[in-house]
Amino acid sequence: xxxxxxxxxxxxxxxxxxxGWNDPDFAARQFRRSVGVSPSEYRRISRDTPLATHPE
Length: 56
Hints:
- It comes from Microbacterium esteraromaticum.
- Pfam families: HTH_18 (PF12833).
- This protein is mostly helical.
- The protein has helices spanning 2-7, 12-18, 24-35, 39-48.
- Helix 2 (12-18) packs across helix 3.
- The longest helix has 12 residues, at 24-35.
- It is globular.
- The model has no long low-confidence stretch (mean pLDDT 90).
């Protein structure tokens, strides 16, 4: 779910459903419990923070 939050603009409910959660609200609560922030906050933070790159 975290990867999709970072790489798509899909609604959080659609992402939750696509990864197998039947209840998007429950998925959001579990995400917050696991990651420490809500899915929307995670998306905002990950968009504001550039991904690390590995030089070749």
